[in-house]
Specification:
This protein is α/β, with parallel strands linked by helices. The chain has 12 helices and 13 strands. The protein binds nicotinamide-adenine-dinucleotide and thymidine-5'-diphosphate (TYD).
Length: about 325
């Protein structure tokens, strides 16, 4: 198979490229990425000279470019998005542009090129926030997005489903919980905490730190997407979770203990506006239909993630200093 993977210079997309090219020696991948602040070609440097890998710098909103790229592949796996809730609170425009308009442009390209197989990667945040006693989100939970980020992802999910029902486009959607692991951009809680602790800085904890997330190791997520792309039922949505609900403060305390630090490294800061209290996922549909379940426990995953960040100081220090954004100009674009 030849896959167009959008946003594969980002966190999950780059992990997916590693996963696919290692698992399927006869597959090839086109990485289409705009290289926004979140895109970093060092994430996929390993494949730079591999004949099965091509990088194209471009915007998913560019219809002519998308038509040309989609025509040439067997399937689209769509990760590209603006992904950080805090940034969407400061400025929502690029979220609507990329997440909603960009997805519509890609869907049209898939339609025009003979109804190409299309997998859309989405988030559990489209379902809103749970109370402590609520059942976890599932595929039948009504949409109730509460941040500009999740609202824009909800819009994209609705468009994907609409193209299935209206045009018969062969789509699938996955809504997954918070990922963590290698190449996680250090603006998100876990990589920010690990890198701050290595640098001897404090970890900012929003509000009372009692917000709950269901953490999923990124490689488990990549395996779920692989299964959905190959065996998923067209038109269906699959919820993907880590079976690892934890309060933010407990995640931070676990990292402190893994890194030999004490609670003086915690700094409680002003809460995020509209902060969703709890996310949790019931993944029994993908478990029953496709035989997927998470394999990495939170304890194993956090320990290996801490190890990865300790061994890749060069990678994240270039991000924190801003130097990584020179990579395309100086190394890649020859
Ligand atoms: P990320 O921010 O690390 O990467 C996004 C990538 O998309 C970057 O490489 C960026 O350059 C690229 N991009 C942004 N706008 C683009 C545009 N207009 N055209 C082309 N490329 C563009 O994000 P991530 O954490 O890897 O998330 C990937 C996908 O998974 C997103 O759709 C996100 O909503 C979804 N998701 C993420 C999580 C998570 O915990 N990170 C959880 C659930 C769902
Ligand atoms: P984040 O990694 O931004 O993911 P999301 O908002 O998509 O869930 O945040 C995870 C949780 O950690 C969320 O409840 C917000 C909180 N948080 C902090 O407490 N401090 C921080 O510095 C960050 C970035 C997040």
């Amino acid at each position: 198979m030849k896959l167009l993977v959008t946003g594969a210079a980002g966190f999950i997309g780059s992990n997916f490229v590693h996963y696919i090219l290692k698992k399927y020696p006869d597959y090839s991948v086109v990485n289409l990425d705009a290289l926004t602040y979140a895109g970093n070609l060092e994430n996929v440097k390993e494949w730079e000279h591999d004949s099965r890998y091509t990088f194209v710098r471009g915007d998913i909103c560019d219809a002519a470019l998308m038509d040309g790229l989609v025509r040439d592949v067997d399937a689209v796996v769509h990760f590209a998005a603006e992904s950080h809730v805090d940034r969407s609170i400061l400025d929502a425009k690029s979220f609507v542009q990329t997440n909603v308009i960009g997805t519509q442009v890609l869907l049209d390209a898939a339609l025009r090129s003979g109804k190409k197989r299309f997998h859309h990667v989405s988030t559990d945040e489209v379902f809103g926030a749970l109370k402590p006693e609520d059942e976890p989100f599932s595929e039948t939970t009504p949409y109730d997005p509460r941040s500009p980020y999740s609202a824009s992802k909800a819009g994209s999910d609705h468009l994907v489903r609409a193209y299935f029902h209206t045009h018969g486009l062969p789509v699938t959607i996955s809504n997954c919980s918070n990922n963590y692991g290698p190449y996680h951009f250090p603006e998100k809680l876990i990589p920010l905490a690990i890198t701050n602790l290595i640098e001897g800085k404090k970890v900012p904890v929003y509000g009372d730190g009692m917000q709950v997330r269901d953490w999923l190791f990124v490689e488990d997520h990549c395996r779920a997407i692989d299964m959905i792309v190959h065996k998923g039922m067209l038109g269906e949505t699959y919820c993907v979770g880590g079976a690892s609900e934890r309060a933010n403060i407990d995640i931070v305390k676990q990292l402190l203990s893994l890194m030999g630090k004490d609670e003086t490294s915690i700094e409680y800061v002003t809460d995020r506006p509209g902060h969703d209290r709890r996310y949790a996922i019931n993944f029994s549909k993908i478990q029953k239909e496709l035989g997927w379940e998470p394999t990495v426990t939170l304890e194993e995953g956090l320990a290996s993630t801490v190890e990865w960040f300790m061994q890749h100081e060069d990678w994240w220090k270039k991000i924190k200093s801003g130097e990584y954004q020179d990579y395309y100009e100086t190394q890649y674009k020859r």
